[in-house]
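User: Hi! I'm working on a homework problem where we have to compare a predicted structure to a textbook description. Could you give me the structure for the chain below?
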Amino acid sequence: MGEMIITGLSLDAEKRLRQAWKLAPGQIFDNAYFEKLITVLAKPSAEIFGEMPVHYTQCGHWLRPDADRHTVDVLLDFKVGAPAAMAEI
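Assistant: Happy to help. Predicted structure tokens:
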């Protein structure tokens, strides 16, 4: 596991997400864990954010492998607005 880069959340919401994330830098990246968390993040989740008001409609996610360092960076981008499929209607 390399870095986790989060955009589009408040500082408090980002802090909660980082606390919920169980992979520390330097640990072996677990894709099954990543996929499970992405499923939870598909919509604002009390499991991660508690009672904090968090408003987003999309969570973009990318994995950025670094072959030289043998790590994978996780990039999460939260957006407010209609999902892409709805925006076209």
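For your comparison, note the following. The chain has a mean pLDDT of 91. Helices lie at 11-20, 31-40, 46-49, 84-87. Good luck with the assignment!
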